[in-house]
Amino acid sequence: MKKTLSLFAGLAIAASSAAAQTSVTAIDGTQGWAPLNRFGGAEAIRGTQELFYAPGDYDRGTVDGVLRFSGDPNTPSGLRHRVALLSSSGGFGLLSNLSTVGFDWYRGVSSTTGAVQSPALRLFVASSNSTVLSELIWEYAYNDPSGTQTAPEGVWQTLTNDLNTGKWWRFSGGQQACNSSLYVTLSSWNSCLGSDAVVYGISVGLGGLPDAGSFDGAVDLVRLGFAGQDVQTWDFGPTSTVPEPASAALLLTGLAGLVAVRRRRSA
Length: 267
What we know:
disordered C terminus
């Protein structure tokens, strides 16, 4: 009986985790996500067969879709366009409780902007010791391990849980420093902003490095989680009823276990 309950518990956990993933099929505000501060360029959810068109660009294969960004080569400020999700109920959680933040990002080989230009992830944060809403921004430009200031092209990249080592920049009506440094970890920003700092929103889009030229890239699987809560994942693409491989495998393993328990009882 204990084994049976244990297997059911495992299936329940899998269902709970799956429920924390949202398929975003529109960026017009109907699902919360909407364009923000767009000065040119374009963004759209693309299916698997229409991701990238330039020769040599990497097709993501079985992924159901992505959020694609393309910058207007004649409007450098358009490279700042993005899509944001703002909380409608007092914030997602305290910055000090942030346990997971990340996204998948891609720079297409057809891009002609500066080599370091990449998609960026921003957290909107407010606290009692700041009179202006802050943006904490992750960009490859601040985190290039090679030091060459050249973002990878044609290969999907993953930012996951870069809380204590990744460098984030703060914009709050102008660039703001923390302990005399412009680029510090989220843990450091939490100390500078105060223990009551709340994450009110998240956005993804192109980085804020104005540079002439065009950009073609994409983001997907935006992740945000806080201590004691399920990690929320936003998957940009068509709604799919097919279980993810990992979830399907766990489900089959659980069912196989139940069958084995029943056979032993019958023997």
